[in-house]
Design a protein that fits this description.
With 248 residues, this protein is α+β, with helices and mostly antiparallel strands. Helices cover 69% and strands 12% of the residues.
Length: 248
Amino acid sequence: MAQGEATRRADYESRIARLLSDLTACSKTVEGALGKFSGLKGALNGMVKELERIREMLADEAALTAEKLDAIGDAVAILEEELGAKRKELAERSQGKEEEYRTQLQYLRADFENYKRRAEKDKRDYAEFCIECFLKDLLPVKEALEAALGHASANDNAQALVKGVELTVKQLNELVLRRGLEEIKAEGEQFDPYQHEVVAKEYDDDHPANTVLEVLRKGYTFRGKVIRPAIVKLAVAKEAEGKEGAER
């Protein structure tokens, strides 16, 4: 290949590389724009493919002639003009969009802040509503206790007080059960580390090892979730008791 042709080839390669770089940047800008730019994106992709084809022609030095270089030069010049036109079109379509997007973002941010405030207020209102409903349900229990105390005081009758309190406790248990509070079954059950907390152990021939012998404090679940484990005393095997004693 003559020196002049080599110079032209190098120049075309440089221009193609610059065009490809510019086209890639321009294409990425189009990808981030609205759907109306899809036609422009397709035209840019077609130009990229054409440049790739021209680059392959330049890479084949054995088949490269002065005529082919002339054709390549014409094609590169046309593509440069087309890219300039596409850039102008993109600039015209995008004009003023930055401010529009910024305004939309500000509105979205304001809407989101308002949503957060409303959500927080709704959460507080709902919590207060739940407490209000529970207190309303609790009022008859309070009144029943007051009535039992008043009746027992007026009649000096301790038995009546006990009976009144028993009925009130039953009423309270029904109330909390309706609300989702349940007592954890423990006595006579096998130890469950998720529901029981062991504070004492005792050797017992009548129960299998790790059986709950006694509930020292009741435990509760709220809608299936343990909110307070039951504090229990466990039965242990004689061998285990002996081993624990040896370790002590």
